[in-house]
Amino acid sequence: MKALKRPEGNAITDPAKQSMMLAALYIAQEQKGYLTKEAVRQVAKRLGVTPGEVYSTASFYTLFRIEPVGKHVIQVCEGLSCYLNDGAERVVEYVSAKLGIQPGETTPDGRFTLETVQCLASCGTAPAMRVNDQLYENLTPASIDDILERLRGEV
Ligand code: FES
Q: Which of 34, 77, 82, 145 sits 20 to 30 Å CA-CA off 96?
């Protein structure tokens, strides 16, 4: 089996610095929902690396976003357990229809971004989706309607 290889060139090799960068990027992303150019510059400055090195790390991990997202990032699980529990495609299609967007898109008002993910570690309560840091399990059309209605009502 071939090992996954990090991109060459801008990779940081110091494990301590790499570890600090991941923590710093996580905290920076919490501010705006994605890594702004200013956040990348600040992280680079604090760690004594170049912005290119920060982007290189950020782009390697799917956890980090370098493009703006909606206020509510909805991640629908497309993993096997969710698929077998009448979720996955059905939930993606339902949420897509409700919001008028496809996975990877953000609503014009900037409130919702829809993404698909492979597993939310909630296989026993599938189908599942996550909105920002909140996990929702045993999804049904009615529960999805409730979730979206509540999120639309948030200021
Ligand atoms: S497959 Fe959906 S939570 Fe694991």
A: 34
